[in-house]
Write a structure and sequence with these properties.
Order of helices and strands: HHHEEHHEEHHHEHEEEE
Strand content: 15-25%
Helix content: 40-55%
Number of domains: 2
Radius of gyration: 19 Å
Structural class: alpha+beta
Oligomer: single chain
Largest sheet: 5 strands, antiparallel
Number of helices: 9
Distance between the termini: 48 Å
Shape: flat
Length: 237
């Protein structure tokens, strides 16, 4: 585990990366943050000022509440993958301010791509930080529900995973087998409804995750989705 460089050094690295990629500084900063395993530049800067180490991915937040942390072996693997990843500038822009969808690997095969909605094989390099904690929490919540366990400490969780031969890496890596779709049009939709409608026009299946204007949305958490006043997806009775 290495300590994150000072903010001064990080700024220097960002400027060097900006020159290397011939891009805007904010995109270089986003790329650098991804390499260190952070969602954005602000999170990386804050961690640097607080003297944190680069294994911050072990801290998982879901819906604003601390839940099950990613096991260290998973966090280390994701961090290494992000550090070596080379996402396209267009992918970084979509993640930071644009629009991305993620579909189940099988259902995504039926998506009708065109010049507006294009496949993006590099998106997982950036989006894994959001998806992995959601997948791990979903698995553990279901597992503990079946085991009729209401609460568990981190040490108890680690023991349970070891004693029951649960492979966190396999579980999380399976969850990252997704089809990513990136918006490549000229005029980005201004509302969630208009953005979501782009997936409805091109697929019978609904996306699982969505990144819109810099915000990660776990669509599985939404009980009901309306587009232009019409319910298009609902888990309500």
């Amino acid at each position: 585990m290495s300590t994150i460089p000072s903010v001064y050094d990080l700024k220097g690295q960002a400027r060097a990366l900006q020159k290397e990629l011939s891009c805007k500084l904010n995109l270089a900063q986003q790329k650098l943050a991804s390499q260190y395993g952070f969602r954005d530049w602000a999170a990386l800067s804050t961690a640097s000022k607080n003297g944190k180490t680069a294994d911050h991915l072990t801290k998982s937040t879901l819906n604003g509440k601390q839940k099950f942390e990613l096991p260290k072996e998973v966090a280390d693997l994701l961090r290494d993958q992000r550090a070596s990843a080379k996402p396209e500038i267009s992918t970084i822009q979509a993640f930071e301010t644009g629009l991305l969808f993620a579909f189940d690997i099988k259902e995504g095969q039926d998506f009708r791509f065109d010049e507006v909605m294009v496949p993006d094989e590099h998106a997982i390099d950036i989006c894994s930080t959001d998806v992995a904690p959601v997948a791990w929490n979903a698995f553990m919540e279901e597992y503990l529900l079946e085991a009729e366990v209401e609460a568990i400490t981190p040490n108890e969780l680690q023991k349970l995973v070891h004693e029951n031969d649960i492979d966190p890496v396999e579980i999380v890596m399976d969850s990252l087998s997704l089809v990513f779709v990136r918006y490549a049009g000229e005029q980005l939709p201004t509302s969630f409804e208009d953005a979501y409608a782009l997936s409805l026009d091109r697929s019978f299946w609904h996306p699982i995750y969505m990144w819109f204007q810099g915000k990660f949305i776990n669509l599985e958490d939404l009980q009901e989705i309306r587009v232009h006043g019409k319910v298009v997806k609902s888990t309500l009775n």
